[in-house]
Design goal:
The protein has about 525 residues and is mainly α. The chain has 20 helices and no strands.
Length: about 525
């Protein structure tokens, strides 16, 4: 399975390389070969228990698929923005690609460095790939861009040491690379924009995303350190938690947003949410769906009898939430993507905050949330945090957040790029859901070395093609320009990757589909 997964990722890299065909795509190819070798060293370290931190055990290291996401995103963003003539974001794409390559290289070097005996072949491949990447960066990046890349790498190192120590068994090395690499880049962007706020570059919804992500992470770190010295389950601690959340929110996050946006963020948010009648209808509809999701949780817990405390929700039951998320995102993508962008940020902040309440057992909801959510745990929730629902939200939202609006003058990209915001809906909401439901109920022919079935994968591909046809009918802004073969190849590759990967598919699949659509 690891070999097939690696071949599928290599196929994606080759497709992007063919589309871009420049020095950066050659570097991505060199990084893919190097990550393929280093991945087996990480797998060996995990099997022998030689890794420095505790990683998730029910999966391989996932280094190759995770290593290629950020560099490939940067390369395809650079190509799209160069075609649109937007030099600033073209250079931004170069920085993203360079940062992703350097962070991935750093993680590979760690694995090679602590492997005994020293793997000679892997060392040679790593040295060659690293030399190619650093030589290209030296001749491509300005001094300020080099400093920015090194800043992200430094933040990544410190974040990794802190979060991997505090959250054992929550990530594989690949997932840690993807999540912590993304967090490091967001934090660096927020610092950079805060220092240059007077320039007024950027939109309020982008600042909202950056501050919300960094704010909830800093909030979690603050309370983790605080509750090392006091019991978090008491009423006094819970009252202190709520008070400090209000103080940090109103005393740090709000002034930070005010500095970036140059206006009152609460007034801006209220004006933004209720600006048009369409937004009011969408907010009402989303409130109904949120209540429906809560109803599913309460109903499934009510079905759990006192004799079956160890009962877990079935795959089909967990996919109810995928259907609800699809019903949430599709109207937002068709009618108001900016509202969907902001609503997803708010929802992410709420999800993370509720997870803090559950994890720290904050009264009055902490113990109740622990009981309600325990029914929906699977083997991927082996650490202290429950992250699968947050990954689902991220997988649906990242294509919306990462859509290069500045490089799409008419609000949409040409060809398959028009489907970029729908990547999460297609890969996770439709493909992964249909594959799981049909595979677990009717699948008989299993892919070699996996529990996934041939029937599930084929049904997922067929369902995504039907979904693309429906998007063409209902969303007038989508114009594929006869790029149907590329869409079919992209959907097929990502569906096969879903069958073979042991990483968090909710996070990985939408990003790969977005990369292929943008390429």
């Amino acid at each position: 399975p690891v070999l097939v997964e690696s071949l599928l990722v290599l196929a994606v890299v080759l497709l992007v390389h063919t589309a871009a065909w420049d020095r950066y795509s050659w570097c991505a190819l060199a990084l893919a070969v190097q990550a393929f070798y280093a991945q087996f060293k990480w797998d060996r370290l995990l099997q022998l228990g030689g890794a420095v931190f505790q990683f998730r055990t029910a999966a391989n290291s996932g280094l190759l698929p995770a290593s290629m996401v950020i560099p490939l995103l940067g390369i395809v963003m650079k190509e799209r923005c160069r075609a649109a003539g937007i030099v600033y974001f073209e250079r931004f794409g170069v920085v993203v690609a360079s940062t992703g390559m350097l962070v991935a290289l750093f993680l590979s070097v760690i694995a090679v460095g602590i492997t005994k005996p020293v793997p000679t072949n892997t060392c040679i491949v790593t040295g060659v790939a690293g030399s190619v990447i650093i030589y290209t960066m030296k001749h491509s990046l300005t001094v300020s861009e080099v400093i920015e890349v090194l800043e992200v790498l430094l933040i990544f190192v410190y974040l990794s040491m802190i979060l991997l120590y505090l959250l054992p068994r929550c990530f594989t090395p690949g997932e840690a690379l993807l999540v912590l690499g993304g967090l490091s880049f967001v934090l660096n962007q927020l610092i950079k924009r805060s220092l240059n706020a007077v320039e007024g570059r950027g939109e309020p919804i982008d600042f909202f995303l950056l501050v919300a992500v960094v704010g909830v992470v800093l909030l979690g770190l603050f309370f983790t350190v605080l509750f090392l010295f006091m019991d978090s389950g008491t009423w006094i601690s819970s009252l202190f938690f709520h008070m400090m959340t209000a103080v940090l929110g109103l005393g740090v996050i709000m002034p930070w947003l005010y500095r970036l946006m140059q206006r009152n963020p609460l007034f801006w948010l209220l004006q933004f949410l209720f600006q048009t009648q369409t937004r009011v209808y969408l907010l009402g509809y989303w409130t109904f769906l949120a209540a429906s999701a809560c109803g599913v949780v309460f109903y499934q817990n009510a079905k759990r009898s006192s004799e079956s405390k160890k009962h877990q929700a079935s795959t089909v039951t967990r996919k109810y939430f995928h259907f609800i998320v699809v019903a949430t995102y599709v109207p937002g993508l068709i009618y108001d993507r900016q509202l969907l962008h902001v609503a997803a940020v708010l929802c992410l902040a709420v999800f993370v905050f509720l997870e803090y309440i559950r994890y720290f057992r904050i009264k009055p909801l902490g113990q109740t949330l622990r009981h309600l959510l325990s029914l929906f745990l699977d083997e991927r929730d082996s650490g202290p945090l429950i992250l699968t629902h947050i990954y689902l939200l991220l997988g649906m939202s990242l294509p919306v957040w990462l859509f290069p609006r500045a490089c799409a003058p008419k609000g949409t990209l040409s060809g398959a790029g028009a489907l970029v915001p729908y990547s999460g809906v297609l890969a996770v909401g439709v493909g992964d859901t249909i594959a799981s439901v049909f595979g677990s109920t009717m699948g008989e022919i299993k892919w070699p070395g996996t529990k996934k079935t041939f029937e599930g994968t084929m049904t997922a591909i067929f369902a995504q093609i039907i979904a693309v046809a429906l998007i063409l009918i209902f969303d007038s802004s989508v114009n594929l320009n006869s790029s149907y073969a590329w869409i079919l190849a992209s959907v097929s590759l990502v569906s096969l990757l879903e069958a073979y990967t042991t990483q968090i598919d909710n996070l990985l699949l939408p990003l790969y589909l977005q990369i292929l659509f943008m390429a």
